[in-house]
Amino acid sequence: MKKLVILAAIFITTQSVCAQLFSKEKVANSVDNIDQKLLTWGYFLGFNSYDFKFNYNEDLEDILVDNSFGFHLGLVGDLRINDYMNLRLEPGVFFTTRNLRYDESYFNGMEFNDSDLLREVKSTYVHIPLLLKVSTKRINNFKPFIVGGMSAALNLSSNQDNPDDNSAGQFRMQKNTYFYEIGFGIDFYLLYFKFTPSIRGVFAINDEVVRDADPNSPWTGNIAKMQTRGVFINFTFQ
Predict the structure, then answer these.
(1) d(CA 226, CA 10)
(2) What is the pLDDT of residue 35?
(3) Which pLDDT band, with edges at 50, 70 and 90, does 31 fall under?
(4) What does UniProt give as the signal peptide span (predicted)?
(5) How confident is the model at residue 3 (pLDDT cuts 50, 70, 90)?
(6) Does CATH place domain 36-237 in 2.40.160.20?
């Protein structure tokens, strides 16, 4: 009996949501005119997965990156251009950790231990993108869109000014990183607010590695360029 009640509740809830989102009638609520306002505000939270792209000076084994899911949150400022285009500012704070794994071939002729083969790179970014959002016409209670633009990020955990380098166990990165971004999502018009899930790819433009004092350092000597790339999954509320 309990299972039947639970299944019935799930069925009724699903029917209600589907009716709200996909019915021919638009939801009549306080967000109906949100797209006609010149300026709107909101917030977002979500998950991220950062990686590194390496270019090398010599053909050695690749540096492997163990990436994990991080967390981020921030604010949204939206400027309406017309019915289909919006300019958005989305400042946020992003937390992530990446582990770099080096092959033993990087240490040929040198003494090393297992800890030398691993570098943990923790990053806390203050990320500020300026984005252009291009939407389709609203279809009932949802509206797909694509988004793209440029961004700058300040890495609060960069270690750029740390006098110690990898010889003392400190992997260093540039404080400032610049990205281009592209993604897509869907605006859902719910009863009291607009909910927007989206996914976005970010790609660094500049080289981020701070090289060790030793030009033949096994950790940075073979890196011609190191650039962040990542995927953001955002949930926005307006």
Answers:
(1) 48
(2) 83
(3) low
(4) 1-19
(5) very low
(6) yes
